[in-house]
Amino acid sequence: MSERSKMRRAQRDAKQEKQAKKVINWIFGVLIVLALIFLIVAMSMQS
Asked: Coil, strand, or helix at residue 47?
């Protein structure tokens, strides 16, 4: 493999890893928001 293709592969891998971390952070954020909404609804139904 040429040096150029190795460099491009490394850049692509780094970009994919960065995007994957961003997606994981979004998923955790949405789950936290949904948990908070669930707690608010559960508390309001108890009263």
From this structure: coil
